[in-house]
Amino acid sequence: MLIAIATAASVIAADQASKAFILSRAWAADSKRGFLSIRRHLTRRVLPVSTLPAGVLLGLWTASAVIVAALLQAGVIPQNMPSAIGSGAALGGAAGNLADRLRHGAIVDFIVVGRWPPFNLADAAIVGGVGLLVLSFVET
Length: 140
Description:
With 140 residues, the protein is mainly alpha-helical. It contains four helices and two strands, in the order αβααβα. The chain has helices at 2-24, 54-74, 81-104, 121-139, and strands at 36-43, 107-113. Strands 1-2 form a two-stranded antiparallel sheet.
């Protein structure tokens, strides 16, 4: 459980630091060059979840964290290194995007790869974390 908490804290710190750096710089309108580029983009996703009040979003994140902890404790999620890192990364990424939503009213995205929509470190942590959680079931 300690590894999951440390991973979540590390993801939040790295995500928020990278977004603060991106927001503190002026980026040229045409900074998109090549396959991989950095471009500041504030994403106001049009999803039902994005229209919920801040308190509800915070409550959903808290409920998710409690559910993951309960599933780990009950043994439903294997207690191994991939599951600890995966759950911490996914929860940390969600917390990083939630912090953006609460502070900026939008999510700060800045990584552009090919034709993919812009994303950030929190998004990568969520995807990677869920992947590790899936792999943790294979390892057992």
